[in-house]
Amino acid sequence: MSRYSISPISASALSVLVEAPAVLSGADTTITGITQDSRSVSVGDLFCCVRGETFDGHLFALDAIAQGACALLVDSPVAGVPDSVAVMTVSNVREVLGLFAAAAFSFPARTLTTVGITGTNGKTSTASMIGSILRTDGKSVEVMGTLTNVRTTPEAIDLQAHLHDCVARGVTHVVMEVSSHALDQHRVVGVMFDVAVFTNLSRDHLDYHKTDEAYFTAKAKLFAPQQALLGVMNSDDPRGQLLLDVAPIPMVPFSQADVSDVTIKVDSVSFRWKNRAFAVPMGGGFTLMNALAAVTACDQLGISIDALVDGCAALGQIPGRFQSLPNDQGFSVVVDYAHTPDGLQQVIASAREICDSRLIVVFGCGGDRDAGKRPLMGAAAQEADIVFITSDNPRSEDPAVIAKQIAHGISRESCEVHIEIDRAHAIASAISMAGRGDIVVIAGKGHEVTQEVAGVHYPFNDVDVAKSALSHKKGSEL
Q1: In a domain, 318, yes or no
Q2: Looking at the structure, do residues 340 and 453 belong to the same domain, yes or no?
Q3: pLDDT in tens, 295-345
Q4: Residue 344 and residue 432 in one domain
Q5: Residues 6+ apart with CB under 8 A from 320
Q6: N or C end of the chain, less CB within 10 A?
Q7: Residue 138 · residue 150 · CB < 8 Å
């Protein structure tokens, strides 16, 4: 939530550009900056009074004016505002903030081709694949999401500022992961996506959305006429099929039935689509569906079939997405971000399909999040032969308590279960016991480079820890 300079514009002119009901009072001041953080206000700024879960920007409006704000965006009266300050009153600041930000930055999305991707799992991989295809076709591409931002989808002002920067840098195509939080909080208002993609839906973020239906309703907002021109959806997913039936925009389905000659390995997936052979240098059965989402979306953008094939083949390693760690010890190690019951189940199912011997899984669950999914994660993990329950990002909770809640979901007696709270030790133990033909799956944190414990972020990366364990195991066997 930064502060940004903008080209000077009067409060009245900005209100007209937005084309949203707004009542302007006070002086018609000239605005030269925009922010929703009162701590970053500079002279000439529009201060947007956003209500959050734990704060209300209206309470800081007078502080912002004292620091030089010349205009306010509000949805309730603020007492004591000088007549020299422009006040733009709307029904709900958060709902229109994206429009005001887009107008302040000259509507950057209108000059970009934009693809938005939503769903529980597969957003990052699908976005990366689309980016690879578009670059192969000669486009200048920006991919935004979990790997590039603090939030999967930035706040509205930050987003519009970034899109404005993309235009300035000559970017032509933006591929963006769009989270359920972002849709619920109207962060992408002001962006009309050329193509919106739905990957799948399963349990996640119920600590925020409370119910599965509310979670789906948030995701479905991406497929509204004011948000996207065209939808591409996974018709093998029940919620995707529902979108196909009820979405008020044109929808194009993709399905596993669209492909043939599928081969899935630990580090690659190949298939035939529209009578062409595709090879993706990334393993896992879910990679097939992510690739289908990507090629279908790019096909709708008019990208040639040759670029689709070459773009899939050119995909680089996606950090923490079924990331295979090469070694010469006769077994495989895979690091994946899977942190939902369905995501973990898919990763385990994909690994099982290509596993010649034992499947060993290391995972935990984050603290201060949906506790109800913990036994469900255990139930998903029990399909492995050996499970190490460990710490994820415990945050303010006791990781031992979280581990016990996970373990309650494991009922299969043939599943060997170990509880090792120290994540580095758990990873090392799993790799130490691995033998020829085994697959070790390290799930939950993926690309993350820290572990959050009691408010402190400690350096930690599953890939680095696993590589160290592999090196130690090889050395000990010499």
Answers
A1: no
A2: yes
A3: 999 999 999 999 999 999 999 999 999 999 999 999 999 999 999 898 899
A4: yes
A5: 335, 336, 337, 445, 446, 447, 448, 462, 463
A6: C
A7: no
263 and 155 share a domain? yes
Report the distance separating Cα 149 and Cα 124, nearest Å.
12
- The range of the structural domain enclosing residue 59 comes to 4-92
Q: Which strand (E) or helix (H) includes residue 232? A: strand 231-234
What is the token pair recorded at 123? 């957003």
Per-chain mean pLDDT for the chain: 93
pLDDT at 121: 86
Identify whether residues 81 and 145 lie together within a single domain: no
Residues 45-80 have pLDDT tens digits of 999 999 987 889 999 999 999 999 999 999 999 999
Per-residue pLDDT, averaged over 26-52, amounts to 96
**DSSP letter string, 60-117:** GHHHHHHTT--EEEESS--TT--TTSEEEE-S-HHHHHHHHHHHHTT-GGGGSEEEEE
Are 308 and 332 part of one and the same domain? no
> What is the reported pTM?
0.88
- pLDDT-derived band at 112 (thresholds 50, 70, 90) equals very high
Report how far Cα 416 is from the mean position of its chain's Cα atoms.
Answer: 33
Residue of 221, 292, 277, 441 lying closest to 353 (CA atoms): 441
DSSP string, 314-334: T----TTSSEE---SSSSEEE
In the block, residue with structure tokens 């120290």: 422
